[in-house]
Each structure stands twice: as structure tokens, then as C-alpha cells.
Amino acid sequence: QVQLVESGGGLVQPGGSLRLSCAASGSIFIGIYAMGWYRQAPGKQRELVAGISSTGRTNYADSVEGRFTISRDIAKNTVSLQMNSLKPEDTAVYYCKADRGLGSPSNWGQGIQVTVSS
Prior knowledge:
The chain is an all-beta fold. The chain has strands at 4-7, 10-12, 18-24, 34-40, 47-52, 58-60, 68-73, 78-83, 92-99, 107-108, 112-116. The strands form two sheets. Strands 2, 4, 5, 6, 9, 10 and 11 form a seven-stranded mixed β-sheet that branches. Strands 1-3-8-7 form a four-stranded antiparallel β-sheet, with no helix packed on it.
């Protein structure tokens, strides 16, 4: 039933690195879906962090560009987010999202906590 599962979160110190992974299954095939990483901090709106289209084009929020990298492994049907030079303001629950397009609703993972703190 669960089609997107995030892993790799945890607690890191400022300046550290963390790699998140999103494993897709069921009817979701990342080669034909637009995939994205979003995050939501307490009391704030959920925001796009990084996205990768079905053709492989990537885009990033200004706040993370140059520090984060989104990538996909079509053979393994996974999408990753490499996070470097982490800052306390990166602390949030991170969600994996898959979009089929064509008017279909988005699929979301359960979310995973990332905490950046000394």
C-alpha cells in the first residue's frame, strides 16, 4: 500500500551532511514521474526543496541550491537527496513526492525527520 518510503534522516551538527533516500514501489515508476523533496518545519508551510522531472531536469529552492543535490536511480526506482553544509534552518520533516501529471493527485511519503543542531 505504501508507495513512497523515505529513509536516512536523523540528527546532525551544523555543517554536517546527510543523505535521504526515497524508495518507490507499486505503480510509481520514477522514470515517468516527476519526483520531489519537500520539507515542513513546525508552524511553517510545506515547501519545495528540490525536484527532478521525468526527463531528469532538476530544480532547487534558493535556500538549498549549491548545498543539496537531488538524483535518481531508475534501475533501483529510488530518488535521493544529498544534503551538505547543513544549517539549523534545514531542520524539518522531509517528504518525498511523486507526480504522474495528467490531472492525477500527487503521492506523498510518510515523511522523515531531519534535525540540525549543535
